[in-house]
Design brief:
Strand content: 5-15%
Helix content: 40-55%
Largest sheet: 7 strands, antiparallel
Order of helices and strands: EEEEEEEHHHHEEEHHHHHHHH
Structural class: alpha+beta
Bound molecules: zinc ion
């Protein structure tokens, strides 16, 4: 058995009827609290009658109230005790007359619950971030209307601010549109309006925004040797649109940000910093599963559209050898680099991204199975026109 707690205290008694106060010696017994004023008889406050004043935290000074007299105002005598150990014998002898949290042992339970809760929160957040949010985001993304995606993609494209870097060349645009039309024959009834923008930069890359806005950089066009090769790239990008990959990424990304803002409170500056970082970095990049999906469906689309699948394989082989060239070689005006930073999160092909061998293998597997003889594509178009001539 543990030693019984101290049971001798001093307090100050306000009798509730006069302005005076009296120092009293105190001790608990089986019936209640015994108050011993100097030079007078001891008083007994029964457990059923006195109570800790409401709103007390369990820390001294303790205020105990006890009804006195018979008048309608129900005057209360108040006892004030400074000693921190005052509740211990009280709790031992008559726990029921103490508030729940101040009964012996209960404060420990409270602490365990509190700390347990605190420890669980990061795991809960991790679970939300890792599993729940992606699952919910995917479901939402598959349900949003195409017009919403189209609007979102258009707004993002405006925000990236590529307009002034676009190549304006009707012949090229017509050739690209012809390729897109051929590819889309293999996806009858698909709801998107696919638009391809050529951007003059020397980046060997392309990307797809939600709703059908595609961007192909001059650096990539320069790498293509045939219309079938560009068709391979476009088939892959179109599949990112049809499979709603970018929409899923955006919703996933922003719901994570929303979760973060809930956790850190609505601290606008921090949110902006996180969003800027995520936008310019990898927040919106497709996952490897998405890439494999776009490859597979893109190649199937090529075959179904009667476009020589070898085109997709040869351009992907060339892209896989390409050293990751994220920014342009020449020029460094600050406005352009701002635009570059915004575009960075979207770029699709990175040669240092592992997995090219697997990707090429699966492309070969689909192409080898094809029995459809390919039909010519853009026979009368001089493909060198696609290459950089400083237009
Ligand atoms: Zn991709």
């Amino acid at each position: 058995m543990s030693a019984s707690p101290r049971n001798r205290f001093n307090g100050v008694l306000y009798d509730g009827q006069s302005a005076g106060k009296t120092s009293v010696a105190l001790g608990f017994n089986a019936k209640g609290l015994v108050l011993q004023p100097p030079q007078s008889k001891p008083l007994l406050w029964r457990y059923s009658s006195f109570r800790l004043k409401q709103g007390q935290s369990g820390k001294p000074p303790f205020h105990i109230e006890y009804p006195v007299g018979q008048s309608v105002e129900h005057p209360m005598a108040t006892l004030m005790v400074e000693h921190p150990g005052f509740l211990a014998p009280w709790g031992n002898l008559h726990p029921k007359s103490l508030p729940w949290s101040m009964r012996p042992g209960n404060s420990t339970i409270q602490k365990v619950l509190l700390w347990g809760g605190l420890i669980c929160i990061p795991f809960l957040l991790l679970f939300l971030w890792r599993f729940a949010i992606p699952a919910i985001a995917d479901r939402v993304a598959m349900k949003v209307p195409e017009t919403w995606e189209d609007h979102l993609g258009t707004e993002f494209y405006k925000a990236i601010n590529f307009k002034e870097y676009e190549t304006v060349d009707l012949e090229r645009q017509k050739a690209i549109d012809t390729i897109v039309r051929r590819l889309l024959k293999a996806a009858p009834g698909q709801p998107y309006r696919i638009r391809v923008h050529m951007v003059k930069w020397n980046i060997v890359n392309a990307f797809a925004l939600p709703g059908g806005t595609l961007v192909v950089f001059q650096g990539l066009l320069d790498k293509t040797e045939t219309p079938e090769e560009l068709a391979g790239v476009l088939a892959h990008e179109i599949q990112h649109v049809l499979l709603r990959h970018s929409t899923r990424n955006i919703i996933h990304h922003y719901s994570t940000s929303m979760l973060l803002s809930m956790v850190v409170g609505d601290s606008t500056q921090m949110m902006e910093a996180i969003l800027t970082l995520a936008n310019s970095m990898e927040g919106l990049r497709h996952t490897r599963t998405m890439e494999a999906e776009a490859d597979k469906e893109g190649m199937t689309m090529m075959v179904a559209a009667g476009i020589d699948p070898k085109g997709m394989i040869s351009i992907f082989e060339r892209l896989s050898e390409e050293h990751s060239q994220i920014f342009r070689d020449e020029g460094d005006d600050s406005e352009a680099s701002e635009t570059e930073k915004k575009a960075l999160g979207w770029l699709d092909f990175f040669s240092d991204h592992p997995g090219w061998t697997d990707r090429l293998d699966s492309l070969h597997a689909i192409a080898d199975k094809s029995t459809v003889p390919p039909k010519p594509l853009l026979e009368n178009f001089d493909w060198t026109r696609m290459h950089n001539t400083d237009r």
